[in-house]
Design brief:
mainly alpha; single chain; 4 strands; two-stranded antiparallel sheet; 15 helices; two-stranded antiparallel ribbon
Length: 339
C-alpha cells in the first residue's frame, strides 16, 4: 500500500480514531475495566482469523478457541519449567505463532479434506476432543486445576507484571500489526484466491486456484493468530484453565466477527469490545446474553449483513444520494433559469 493510497479520507479518519482510542482509554479506564478491554483486544486478534477463514474464504471454523488453548498451554509449559527446562517468555511468545502455524497446517491437511458443513462439524469435534485433553491430561495441561504461577511477559530487563496500562499499549500494537497483516492478505493473491473460493469454489478450480492448499494456508494463518493471542492472554492473566476452551467460548469469536463485520478489520475490534464488554455492564442479565447475541446476529444478517461496519457504508451511500439529488436539483434550476 503506497502513501498515496493510505492518505484517503477513510484511512485518515481510521488513523485518527485509533490514535484517539489509544490515547484516551488509559486516561479514563483503570482497574478491572482495563483488564476487560485488554482481553477484548486479545480476542479481536483471534477473531482476525475468523475474518480470514469465514470472511475471505467462506469457511466456518470453530477451531480458534483450541489454538488459543494450544498457545496458552505452550507458554505455560515452556516458561514454568514443568517439562524440565525454561524458555524466556519473549522467546516463547515469538515461537508460538510459528509452531502452531505448522500444527494448524497439519491439522488443516486432514480437516479440509471435508467441505462445507462437514468441515464445520469437524472443527466442532476438534474443540471437544481438545477440551477433553485440556481438562483431564495433567502432565501437560494441569487437569481440572489448570496451571498457575505463569511468568508474565519480560522483554529484555522490562517486565510487564500487573501494569495493565503497559499491557494495553503492547496489545494495541499487536492489534494494529495484526490488522495490517489481515488487510495485506485481503489484497494479496491469497486473499483473491480465498474470495474466489468463497464465491464459487468450482469456478475457482477452473481458474487454476488450488482450493485445497489455499484453505489449508488460511487455516494455518488463523491458527497462528489464535495461538499468539492465547500466549499473550495467559501471560496477562498468569493462569490457564480448561474451562476457557470449551465450545461455548468457541462461538464468541464467531459472534465478535459477525457483529462487527466479518470483512471489516476495524469492525472486528469493535465487535470484540462489545461482546466482551457488554456482559460486564449487564451482569444481572448474564443468563440472557446468549439470547441477546443470537437475536442481534439474526437482526444484523437480515437488515445489515455486513455487520456494524455496514453502518458506515449506509451513511456514505445516503450522503452520496443526497449529493446526487442536490446536484440534479441545481442543474434543473439552472436549466429553468436559462429557459
Amino acid at each position: 500500500m503506497t502513501l498515496k493510497n493510505l492518505a484517503t479520507p477513510k484511512n485518515i479518519i481510521g488513523i485518527i480514531a485509533i490514535i484517539a482510542f489509544v490515547v484516551i482509554v488509559p486516561q479514563v479506564v483503570q482497574g478491572f475495566a482495563m483488564t476487560i478491554i485488554n482481553v477484548a483486544l486479545l480476542f479481536a486478534i483471534i477473531s482476525y482469523g475468523v475474518s480470514i477463514m469465514l470472511g475471505m474464504g467462506g469457511q466456518l471454523s470453530f477451531a480458534a478457541v483450541t489454538f488459543m488453548g494450544f498457545g496458552a498451554y505452550f507458554i505455560a509449559n515452556m516458561s514454568t519449567g514443568r517439562l524440565g527446562f525454561v524458555i524466556p517468555t519473549f522467546l516463547a511468545l515469538l515461537l508460538t505463532p510459528i509452531v502452531f502455524a505448522g500444527v494448524a497446517f497439519l491439522i488443516g491437511l486432514v480437516l479440509l479434506k471435508l467441505k462445507g458443513t462437514y468441515f464445520t462439524f469437524s472443527t466442532i469435534a476438534l474443540v471437544q476432543v481438545a477440551f477433553t485433553y485440556f481438562n483431564n491430561f495433567q502432565p501437560l495441561f494441569g487437569g481440572p486445576d489448570g496451571i498457575s504461577g505463569i511468568p508474565t511477559l519480560t522483554i529484555g530487563s522490562y517486565s510487564f507484571g500487573n501494569d495493565l496500562t503497559a499491557w494495553f499499549y503492547l496489545i494495541c500494537v499487536f492489534v494494529i500489526i495484526g490488522g495490517i497483516i489481515v488487510e495485506r492478505i485481503r489484497r494479496s493473491q491469497l486473499g483473491r484466491s480465498l474470495a474466489s473460493i468463497r464465491d464459487n469454489e468450482t469456478a475457482a478450480l477452473t481458474l487454476g486456484v488450488n482450493t485445497y492448499l489455499t484453505k489449508v494456508i488460511a487455516f494455518s494463518i488463523a491458527g497462528a493468530f489464535a495461538a499468539f493471542a492465547g500466549a499473550l492472554w495467559v501471560m496477562h492473566g498468569r493462569f490457564v484453565g480448561a474451562e476457557m476452551f470449551n465450545f461455548l467460548n468457541a462461538t464468541q469469536f464467531i459472534i465478535m466477527a459477525m457483529i462487527g463485520g466479518v470483512n471489516s478489520t476495524v469492525g472486528i475490534v469493535i465487535g470484540a469490545l462489545l461482546v466482551r464488554g457488554l456482559p460486564e455492564f449487564f451482569r444481572g442479565f448474564q443468563g440472557y446474553m446468549n439470547l441477546f447475541w443470537g437475536v442481534s446476529i439474526i437482526l444484523l444478517m437480515v437488515f445489515m449483513p455486513t455487520g456494524l461496519a455496514g453502518i458506515k457504508d449506509v451513511i456514505v451511500d445516503k450522503f452520496r444520494q443526497f449529493r446526487v439529488k442536490s446536484r440534479k436539483g441545481d442543474d434543473d434550476d439552472a436549466t429553468n433559469t436559462k429557459a
